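Per your request, structure below.
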């Protein structure tokens, strides 16, 4: 009788928790697919813009095309490695790895690709049981799942600015529909 109760308890527990774990793993799988496509599209955008136009700004107070590109890398690094991973944040004033600095177009594209790869690796190895952990996100209480969604929005926001800069420089941006 005791074995039947134990076995029934295990089966019941498994039937309740299995769908939860499957949902979390499904979220990460879908998120990574989206991030891979985002990387492909952003790199195509970055390659399409002429190097001479990398310093273009729509207004004096705006970020340049290059600054938007590298800001995306900075944000990926901070959201994943620091905010979710607990690593100390880079010092904006002294760390130039993810800043335009004196980088060429080729160097910036290489750095953004590398940063996407590191972010994808981090998320691939992220313990899905930690997605419900809560963090202070600029005064807002957010789960780590929400942080990932905010990161995706942030990438899209700055890439959208880069697409406008391409149009303002007479270029037709690569077709987005191929990356959905």
């Amino acid at each position: 009788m005791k074995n039947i109760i134990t076995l029934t308890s295990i089966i019941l527990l498994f039937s309740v928790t299995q769908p939860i774990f499957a949902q979390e793993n499904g979220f990460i799988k879908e998120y990574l697919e989206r991030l891979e496509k985002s990387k492909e599209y952003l790199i195509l955008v970055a390659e399409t813009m002429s190097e001479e136009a990398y310093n273009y700004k729509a207004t004096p107070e705006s970020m340049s095309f290059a600054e938007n590109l590298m800001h995306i890398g900075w944000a990926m690094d901070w959201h994943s490695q620091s905010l979710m991973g607990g690593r100390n944040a880079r010092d904006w004033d002294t760390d130039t790895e993810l800043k335009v600095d004196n980088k060429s177009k080729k160097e910036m594209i290489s750095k953004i690709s590398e940063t996407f790869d590191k972010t994808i690796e981090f998320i691939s190895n992220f313990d899905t049981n930690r997605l419900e952990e809560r963090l202070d996100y600029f005064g807002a209480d957010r789960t780590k799942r929400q942080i990932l969604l905010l990161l995706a929005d942030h990438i899209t926001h700055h890439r959208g600015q880069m697409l406008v800069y391409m149009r303002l420089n007479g270029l037709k941006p690569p077709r987005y529909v191929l990356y959905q």
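Residues 25-179 form a domain with the Four Helix Bundle (Hemerythrin (Met), subunit A) fold (CATH 1.20.120.450).

Regards,
D.
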